[in-house]
Queue: 2 jobs
Job 1
Amino acid sequence: MSGGLFSMAWRNLWRNRRRSFATIASIAFGLAAVSTVAGYMQAVNNGLGNIAVHSDLIGHLTIYKKGWQTEGKLHPARYLLTEEEIDRIRAIVAATTPGARLAARLSVMGLVSNGRQSTIFIAEGVAPEDMSLLRGPFGASDEVLREDSPQGVIVASGLAEILGLKTNDAASILVSTVHGQANAADIDIDAIVNTGNLATNDKWIAMPLELARDQMDAKGRAEALTLLLPVHGTGQPLSGKAADLAMYDRFPPDDAAMSALRQRLAAAFAEAGIETDMLTWQEMSPFYTQVRSMWDMMYGLFLGVVLAIVVLSVANSVGMTVVERTREIGALRAIGMRRGGVARLFVTETALLVLLGIATGFVLALLTRAGINALDIRWVPPSLSKDVQFYVGFDPLRTVLAALALAALAIAAAFMPARRAARHPIIVSLGHV
Amino acid sequence: MLGQTRIHALRGIDLEIMPGEFLAIWGPSGSGKSTLMNMLGLIDAPDAGSIVFDGEAVAALSDDALSDRRNRKIGFVFQNFNLVPVLNALENVMLPLQLQDVAKREAAARAMEWLDKVGIAHLRGFRPDHLSGGQRQRVAIARALVAHPHLVIADEPTANLDSRTSHEVIDLMEKLNEKTGVTCVFTTHDPRLLERVPRQLRLSDGRISADSYTEGKSR
């Protein structure tokens, strides 16, 4: 009967076209909405992850000398990595993680002055070539330190505004060395950039590592080594819209990958007798982790609401169909269709409806995504200081799981009225008007 | 049950129907004709007493077993035809065979044979809503007989048909009864149809008030 059942179910779908179309539409809109929200979440998560790794220059994994995070600020000379330790770590990373690159980092805090006014700054000391590497394919070339400018720095636009600094202006910095003595130097403003983050845009500076080492009196030493995995290749930096889209579409390594990397390196360092602390990019960016958790909660709530609406719609549709066809069910039972056969007929009809709804939903989701992205809607998210595109990505896993959940719940919703219809006494069904 | 009142549709019925009989049940409305037909067709069960069908006590059968007995041994012709509206004439007749998992090709061939026997083979591709009442009832008769049942139950099969078509339908059932030896039981209000039937059973107030045979018609 399977072929006949399928054919009968298919034809039954179109007996009440308006109702079937309404049910298909509810499934399709539900799935498209879930897929669009999931795609948007994924784009935002990717964007935040890539901003953390590349724009905030934290890389994928940060390696400190053990104890730096608790004692390092009080006793920097004791807890900065030495030149010899840096070389040994580089050798181990090269052997255990092919393709990974390491950037030595030294952060500097102090006062910056335009000659009339002073304000605090926090500077990242990083070699120009390493900064280019850390920016990855997302950063524009004017946001990278210049090799030919040993005193050249990049200043955050908010800080430049406070001090009235422009590109090619000069300024002075005053910092404390690792031994606690004051040290001053002149700097050249090579570039002014918006960090994209209100919390850092009024104090951030990027300076050459050697300038930072000189100021800190810490020759050859580093506060940390930032490891960058070759996940985005070493292609040319992207700019403009291409950089925006790459930021949204490319996945930073996930928790599992980072955990495995840390475990592998920790074992190798321990074997070599080097004591380190390592933080993954997720741990270095609590904002990313908190936003992702918030998204997960909101998505769960949204998915639940959509599923409830779709299930009620399907149950209502099947319930009405069952009532309308009560006498037909009685006749089918009289000529020998088993209860299971009646239930199978209605479940098959619902499965076909769900299949059509899901297929339409996928198409609708792709069209919605293409439409929203083509409109190039721009907005300024919380804590950012520049606008970004409202971009919808595509999350195949969440979309497929939502489709499966929709299908399973819709079929379960159809099963109840179908079973009730199948168990109705035949003579009552035949007498139904 | 009718509201809170318990109604006894049948009382003390003791009836034996032999293979190959052509039997009409008649009586006033509310006399219990349909209830008796439902019990004969194994779609209703008595509160007391027993039904033995083909030598088998049906009370002990599960719902699935009853479905199988109805499918293989009983054909139904309903007053309102009760054809499946989304299936054409041929597919409606194929349905009982497909429930037995008969291969589609064989089911189609056998269904065509029966559509031919009831004289509407040329209407095989038409859905019920494109057929007249008489044509629909012929499809229903073909559907009732296609699985070679032992018994055909027809509850007022001519109630929705005009006089000429009613006679044609009873003619057809009579002819099939003679040719195939299938037992036919039908109910009617039409006294002219009763004269055509070898055995007539009259019901009054849920009891058999007369069980008579037409002379020269007995099988």
Note: Residues 8 and 47 of chain B are 9 Å apart (CA to CA).
Job 2
Amino acid sequence: MTVLENHDEGLSDNGVRLSEAGARDFFELLKPRVMSLVVFTAFAGLVLAPGALNPMLAAIAILCIAVGAGASGALNMWYDADIDAVMTRTARRPIPAGKVTGEEALAFGIALSCFSVGILGLAVNWLSAGLLAFTIFFYAVIYTMWLKRWTPQNIVIGGAAGAFPPMIGYAAVTGTVSIDSVILFMIIFLWTPAHFWALALFKMRDYGAVGVPMLPNVAGEGPTKVQIVVYAVLTALCSVIPSFRGTASLGYGLFAAVLGILFVWYALKVYRMPEGDEKMVPAKKMFAYSILYLFAIFSALMADHVIRAYGVTGGAF
Amino acid sequence: MDTVKMTEAQRKSRRNRNVALGLALAGLVVLFYVMTWAKLGAFHG
């Protein structure tokens, strides 16, 4: 029997790779921060849907949607490892850091995609499972492999992947796709460009270095700022629609309007930011507020729904 | 027969991955139990 020496790079004399990756590294592949937003919006879809789902099955649905979102994150990290290694924001991700290999990430992503879609279909219904499968496909293939490196409108179209979770949650309860679930989709869909371009503005050197055609690099700061304002206005308008449709109260509508005006105000501050500003403080503030905004809008929608459903204000839903 | 001598860090991370995989499998067992229970519960009432 021969005992082979083992070197620092994890490769033995006969080329066998010995991984030092821990469970935490695999968890990092799932993009936990993105997952938390997905869990929240999917939960909102479940709460806002008319009807009821067994709480155990609802919890399984949320778990499947979270794992499915994580799986698409792992597939994204597998494909984007080359550019992740160059950008400061992503250089410490498990693949560029050398903790997990691309093949491991790919296998992990595919396995989790299959499990999440299969279990959601078996436990809840196949429409929600189909939407989850489409979301994973959309994010991993349409956005990551195709749009991201091809068009500056990548985030506009690709944003649809992040907008599907409330629709999946809604479909888990009702087994259908309705106008109300499309409105939830549209709120996130319209919010994404304003949110992401604010980030892209102060990270544009990173994207420029790896050749990803983000709008600020391709069209310049000016047109990006205009589009941030346009999408902020559209998001603010879309967020009050549930109130006009009668699925949310007037109180929600007023709350959403105030938040929306603030969103547009932050966008206008970005618009007035001098060209070539080094610190880009307004863009950073806009990015931070955009996250708070989405959480607040969906929290308000859920609170309003619960209050109306349980007759706290005397009304029945 | 060739064997590779593992470093302490590699041994530790392998154990860590094995524990995580074991927990994930146990989680799947619980998940399928709960799923079956909830589905059958729905059928019976």
Note: Strands of chain B lie at 2-4.
